[in-house]
Amino acid sequence: MRTIVFVLFTLFIFLNGQSQGLLTEKNNFTHQDTLRGSITPEREWWDLTYYHLDVEVKPDAKFISGKNTIQYKVLKPHQVMQIDLQPPLQITKVLQDGEELQIRHDGNAHFVTLINQQKIGTVNSIDVFYEGQPTEAKRAPWDGGFSWKKDHNGKDFIATSCQGLGASVWWPNKDHMYDEVDSMLISITNPKGLTNVSNGRLRKLIDNGDTVTSHWFVSNPINNYGVNINIGDYANFSEVYKGEKGDLDMNYYVLKDNLEKAKAHFKDAPKMMEAFEYWFGPYPFYEDSFKLVEVPYLGMEHQSSVTYGNQYKEGYLGRDLSGTGWGLKFDFIIIHEAGHEWFANNITNKDIADMWIHEGFTSYSENLFLDYYYGKEASADYVIGTRKNIQNDKPLIGYYDVNNEGSSDMYYKGENLIHTLRQLVEDDQKWRQILRGLSSTFYHQTVTTKQIEDYLSEQTGIDLTAFFNQYLRTIKIPTLEYRIKKGKLKYRWINTVENFDMPIQVEINGKSEWLFPKMKWQSKKVASEDFIIDRDFYVNAKKI
Ligand SMILES: [Zn+2]
């Protein structure tokens, strides 16, 4: 998620940051940012294996209470465990083997001292009890928290969202991307007459009298921010998609009044599945099904329960982000948020500084959807059209270990650098196999940018070190400087990092050919001054 509003927000930071300098920005991180964003010694020693989140939601009081059972494997001996939970929610007690444990509170981090000796290789668990009125989202999904809304019939319409801010805004957990839990049970109690939809599959539904409890089980690794509660007066319809791995259940939960509209509009969902399985390989969570769930905000990539609030319009709330018309050929939220099942949920960044892996590839997936249904030219129009949204304010990679995202250019610049890479591969079948290989090589893993870079260099057979340094770590757009005089073309790269030598396709006198510019001038004979740089490359040109 994160798009337009966030871009404006980032722009503000940029204008602000320019006067202070980027170094100041780096120094502005707090002790709390480090606790949230780094793999602290109190996190490092244990590996998450299982969560059972058991929560009651009381809409009238905007109050939640419950517990999270955190099961973990001991990797090295240590007696103190960091658990994250953001105020105003409060941990009321933590138990292990029936004994209450001591807690030292440090802002959003809570350090629990374990009594029993933690032996390497053993699997233990703690129960973290908590309650309170959670932070209310003002501009979901961008700020995050609980959205306590009503539908048109005055019924409660409630949802959680927490990307960036962190899942600890509504439940206690190990709130860092590097360690995904292996599986999870989500048990939600809510007033009778309303339905809760969370991730994975519904195991059972218990009638408690005034309330109901739904037990949702996720059988695959899931990142914290992907976990969600959606409570509403839902109607449900479903279909079985014949996919690469067999039958895939696709379920749709929408407000009752929107049922007929949704049945027509959600045809984009199986279309999405067909295109993305073609390009990226099998949907990564067959065991957990695929769901689209209507929510009172725009949408989010919640794993196996992608949330939807695009008002049943094509494009992004009816707008085309590329300005080419192609963006109105699909519902942006269905395509983009579901694209995240491959990039964010299957392949997850270890540190949020590498979030371009999520947003760059997912934004790129929009153009592959177009490629699949409308062809290569349409998809190229689209991705090139999005370039106008690039700010080049700061690099795509953020600061590590402080829960810092890079520039919001991770969307449009991200997709354009990947589109440029496709040109360098110059073989669409090979390119497709490389993309599918990403999904299988890093299946259900958390990764670093370096791992993705190394994989792509290896698979393309091109040393992409300078390419990625240029596009991910600087705001400089490589510029082809050239001059044509007396039948001679002189050309070189400027505005680049060291050793940047990307080949580029050009058209000279109506004929397409590759140039191999370096930072030093090179030259070649040309028959005319008719010279065009292939628009598929995200570069600038400077004629002198
Ligand atoms: Zn996204």
In brief:
By secondary structure, the protein is an alpha+beta fold. The two termini are 42 Å apart. The relative contact order is 0.09.
Plain-language structure description:
The chain has 544 residues and is of the alpha+beta class. Helices cover 26% and strands 32% of the residues. The protein is built from 13 helices and 29 strands. It has an 8-stranded mixed sheet with strand order 5-4-8-2-1-11-14-13. The chain has a 5-stranded mixed sheet with strand order 16-17-18-20-19, covered by helices on one side. Strands 9-10-15-12 form a 4-stranded antiparallel sheet, with no helix packed on it. A hairpin with a 5-residue loop joins β19 (299-300) and β20 (306-308). The longest helix has 19 residues, at 356-374. It is globular. Zinc ion binds at residues 1, 336, 340, 359, 362.
